[in-house]
Amino acid sequence: QVQLVESGGGLVQPGGSVRLSCAASGMLFGIAAMAWFRQAPGKQRELVAELTTDGSSRYTDSVKGRFTISRDNGKNTVALQMSSLKHEDTAVYYCNVRRQFGLSDIWGQGTQVTVSS
């Protein structure tokens, strides 16, 4: 069973930066995209950024220009560089692998990012 392990969360001041990383514990097959989601208290989980295997990326409007998703294909890792952080970025961030060919998606356990002074 492949697992995704996130790291890099924590407490950061408004305007600061943090980098999240996600690594797969084993071989991943049928990857269509790797992504980051987040869920704030009392809110639904939302897509933050996604990077497909053909190199296309998309971001939710609220993070455009501030967050960057990247992937190391050889190591099956995906990172999220977060800059100019705002209070409203506070959430649990989840790594996700979307797969094709009928394979199930995989989720990480989540990492907390708290933006506060």
Task: Please render the helix and strand layout as text.
Elements: E1 4-7, E2 10-12, E3 18-24, E4 31-39, E5 46-52, E6 57-59, E7 67-72, E8 77-82, E9 91-99, E10 106-107, E11 111-115
Parallel strand pairs: 2-11
Antiparallel strand pairs: 1-3, 3-8, 4-5, 4-9, 5-6, 7-8, 9-10, 9-11
Count helical runs: 0
Helicity, as a percent range: under 10%
End-to-end separation: 40 Å
What is the string of SSEs from the N terminus onward?
A: EEEEEEEEEEE
Shape: globular
Unreliable segments (pLDDT under 50, ≥5 consecutive)? Answer: none
Biggest pleated sheet: 7 strands, mixed
Helix-and-strand structural type? mainly beta
Q: What radius of gyration results from the CA coordinates?
A: 14 Å
Quick tags:
117 residues, mainly beta
Give a short synopsis of this structure.
This protein has 117 residues and is an all-beta fold.
Give an overview of the whole structure.
The mean pLDDT is 94. The strands form 2 sheets. Strands 2, 4, 5, 6, 9, 10 and 11 form a 7-stranded mixed sheet that branches. The protein is mainly beta and 117 residues long. The chain is globular. Helices cover 0% and strands 52% of the residues.
